[in-house]
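QUALITY CONTROL LOG
STEP: pairwise intake check
CHECKER ROLE: data steward
CRITERIA: each record must contain a sequence immediately followed by its structure tokens, with no blank fields

ENTRY 1 OF 2
RESULT FIELD BELOW
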Amino acid sequence: MEIERALREDLEELTGLYTLVADQMNEKGLMQWKWGTYPNEEILRKDVEAGNLFVLRTDGRITAAVTLGLGQDPEYEGLHWTCGVRPGCIRRLVVHPSTQGAGLGGLVLDDAQQILRRGGCDCVRCDTSERNGAALRLYEKLGFRRSGFMHWDDVPDENFITFDKPLMRETPLWPVPMSPAFRGGVLTPWGGDALRRVYGKRTEDERTGESLEVSCIPGLESRDPMGRKLTDLIREFGEKMAGRYADQAFPLLLKLIDARDKLSVQVHPNDAYAAARENGKLGKTEAWLILKTPEGGGELIYGIRPGTTLQALREASEQGSAVEKLLNRVRVRPGDVCYIPAGCVHAIGAGILLYEIQQSSDITYRFYDWDRVGTDGKKRELHLDKALDVTDLRLAPAPKHVQESFGTKRILNEEYFTLDVIRPDGPEPLPPLNQFGLLTALEGDIRLRWKGGSLAMKAGETCFLPKSAPAMTLDGNGWAALSMPNG
């Protein structure tokens, strides 16, 4: 059995079928359809005359019907989907109650997808009430993905879930807005409320130090708008999502950090040390882009003072506060960039809000925590032996300032990642993606655009740019950071 275009002489039978199904929905308390309002005879007549209404016949009787459209329904404009630039739409799928459960809905949808694909569509889109369990199960069984929510004016009391599905291997994936995970409370006793106050983050603790904007760290994964973990998206879409990292450890971790108080003095290992001593984990090289500081600037610990020996560093660290005189202190202001390779001793100072791109690692070795004690009266654990093992005393870096200018400026091109700062003056093309990209709005209101879609981004919001994403531009009044793996 295959679906075929409905004929004008089918209109009476179709009217009876849609009336019957709508009435049954209403009897069950589902108001997705109300015959005469939506759908109605005029809608069906227009569908038939346009050649968009298809039917499935069983023994000469219409047992299922569906309306197909090449292109996007006006009501779908402005919604966020997951894929495609040449959409087709499925509307008003109906199966006769006497044949429900016989798999006819699946047959109709399979045929519908083939018709849309032959028509040049690279994806299919549809929606259904969130209370229509049968339709939800059918779409998900056939590989449709939940993409978001919408409302129809004719049925204000029903919430609708949107679905889409790629129809071709080369169908591009759309940029994915990311919902962060947070570290706070006892894990970040130095944290504050700036992530909530400045960026509107939904933090749960007044001492939230980290917003993990893009993360595959177990237990701290970032998620898409429907709550799916980034790790699951990469597993589902593979190379189209993460390029060559689809089958490797995810390489990057992106954070926004609020330091109400100064952080501990710390250092991170390189890949070789971490692999040997930390169960095969990645090492940790990172970079900071300073966003806000106290009036007059902020202070960082950035390396060890030149001339210090490892033995002197060990002896001072064992004494506690004696190590403070060996720490290299630098002043920073918004727009400064600090590259922190593995082995570089560092600490964020009080009152600083920053953007951090790093290798995807949670390894930190503390040298010194300013002799602070927690609410339990105890000091936090230090890791002196490992910290001294990995410290590179040759590293004496200095902050670099990003000059304000329109366009795209690459400010870091390092071993593990690149970092671009983008200030659009009209539509600004994004650089080609190397495997994937991580785009964060840092100030103002900007809009990411691509063929068939766009995404408004407020300061503090981050979007994952898949390897297969269409060409994109950025415009608006503000600036953004774009990080990518380098290799």
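ENTRY 2 OF 2
RESULT FIELD BELOW
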Amino acid sequence: MPLRMLGALAGALFCWACYWSIRLAYADHIANDRSRPAIERAIRLAPGNPEYYVRLAEADPSSALTAMEKAVALDPLNSAIWIDFARIAEEHKDFQRAESCLLRAVGLDRTFAPRWLLAGYYFRRHDPPGFWPAVRSALATSYDDVAPLFDECWQLAPNPGTILAQAIPDRNDVLRQYLNYVLAKKRLDLAEPVASRVMEHAGRDDVPALLSYCDDLLAKNQAPPALEIWNSMSKKRLLDYPALIPENGASITNGGFEKPFLTTAFDWRLAQLPGVSALRGGTLPMLRLSFSGKQPETCEILSEFVPLAPARKYLLSVRYETDEIEGDTGLSWRVLDVRDGADLLEGTGQLKGKERVEGEEELSFTTPAETQLARVALMYQRVLGTVRITGSISLRNVRLSIAK
């Protein structure tokens, strides 16, 4: 073929390509109007674009199903178009077709979105046999916050325990979210099997949820399950603390103040109080509490939940020193029974002021037969006839042991 003819052919092809580029761009411009006449004109200019048929279905409900049939025929492997078809079919009360379209989308797309939409469809249709496998599949591919799916589960399930068995996959991120969800609903009675499944393959990300579960158990005086979770985390090295074994006298966590406080579960909780500042650390670990004289007249400064063996005699030993606090400090230790708040200590537990001299107090108490949990607490109460204290106290060690 002569070069002149090749050049002419190339020029014609270029012009043809330019014509169609302009035509398609113009069709897009017209379709942006989203009115039925505009979209129909865009379809005449570019009849192979399935998106225009989706827009036509939205602009003209009377021809919506027909338009969507053309859209999926043009692009049958596009899951988003099948999802649009399902939505429009449901709006037109064509539920069989809506379900079929969503199932087609799920078959084409392995991600979360179509499975979430399928579960939502079965939820709206009050169809438990369809909903449970769909929501389980959705949660198995989920990411981020899935609380809306849990909401649907709770509304549909006659017994919320059904959710764990039928909906929750073996994914710790989902199990962890479900544990937090159950705790937020104040359903501690349903949390134990969830926490057990989380604990099976627990990692660092699961620790906050498990500690929150411990807190809720402790608030309800349920020491054994809280202790089981705590010790399981300890054995998996998810906590930098040894296990607690109250029958062997191992009941205090972080008694030497070597580690930063978790401020939860069985570790120290330090109150944030005006006029009281705290500093932990030093070459010899300690907790230094300083008082400005502006602290509340009565307050709890430091506390820790401690598991106890019932009907046993204990010794609470505290090593400390005071600086510029003399005489009656107003500071005292309490061992408070979680059942009723009663102080178990035999005696006042009061700390005497010393001028930079380290001392040790040894206090005793006996646990009632029904008691398995108490709070060891450092309290302050202004002594009558005195002003609020200033100065500091350094706690070196708090130890709890079973008396021989």
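INTAKE CHECK: passed for both entries
DESCRIPTIVE NOTE, ENTRY 2: The CA atoms of residues 182 and 398 lie 35 Å apart.
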